[in-house]
Amino acid sequence: MPRRSKEAYLWDIADSCRAVLEFVGGRELSDYRQDRMLRRAVERELSIVGEAVSQGTRYFPELEERIGPVRQIVAFRNRIIHGYADVDSDIVWAVVHAEVPRLLEKCESFLRDES
């Protein structure tokens, strides 16, 4: 039995996505590469996204249809956490700009539909 609601997991995902987009707003890839604190902050929020996706879909499998590529999201989280020494800034930057806004929109849409 989950200790948290489906909406709580979705809120965590959306909140971390918003934070990532806020952190990188107005920044360039070169800024990201040079700013250790920015990289760590983005990686931390992305790890929260991956963990919330993993736990949320474990307890609420129907979320997978709405969220999208769950295995890839969780694998990316695992890479950030366990393969931290080999995290590629170019890949993270690409994910942040291509995937995070889509995931945020999906979560926000789901939360609107559920309320």
UniProtKB/TrEMBL annotation:
It holds the Pfam family HepT-like. GO terms for molecular function: hydrolase activity; nucleotide binding; RNA nuclease activity. Keywords: Hydrolase, Nuclease, Nucleotide-binding, Phosphoprotein, Toxin-antitoxin system. The keyword Hydrolase applies. One of its GO terms (cellular component) is toxin-antitoxin complex. InterPro entries: HepT-like, HepT-like_sf, HepT_RNase_toxin. Transmembrane segments: none annotated. PANTHER family: RNASE MJ1380-RELATED (PTHR34139:SF1), UPF0331 PROTEIN MJ0127 (PTHR34139). Belongs to the HepT RNase toxin family. This is DUF86 domain-containing protein. It comes from Rubrobacter marinus.
